[in-house]
User: Fold this.
Amino acid sequence: MVKITLVSLLHSHSAGFPVYPVSLLTSLLESHEGDLWLPARNGSDIAQLRKHAKGAQARELASLDAGWCDFATGKEGATAELDALANYDAEMMENLQMYWHSAAKINSPISDNLFELRREVVDEAHGAKLATAWLAQQQLRFEQLMSAAASGRDQLCFVEVESAYWLRQKLSETPDVELITPAF
Assistant:
């Protein structure tokens, strides 16, 4: 049974949550012997992980950009759905400021649930085209991991906190995969 360790990354949110330092994430690289996966995204945490990849080149996950939706900037939207998304984002970030008081909370089922709910609000606000692109790219990431796992090598996969719920759910339903969430 192959082990796949899935770790949430804060990327653009990392400055607001000092409880999740990059050193905590890079420590996972030291004991890992298999493949390393990073998202095709910018962020200081991602850059540091690439730098500390023990000489092995990190593999790049499929980009989620075609279905990505940044957090709303607080401006009113053009529709009621976009207003709802902006309100959800503002409230969610306020709640996460209180909830994410430890690294374990960032990788918790509650965080996954919050981001899954946010995705439903995003899909309502932006429609089927964005939702379809999101699902297609998530599926491509899953297929990348399964193809690599077929070699029998363990996988260490860092993904955006906004998208971790999807892979965690899919991997937990996959036979012959032991899904690991690190204990921080």
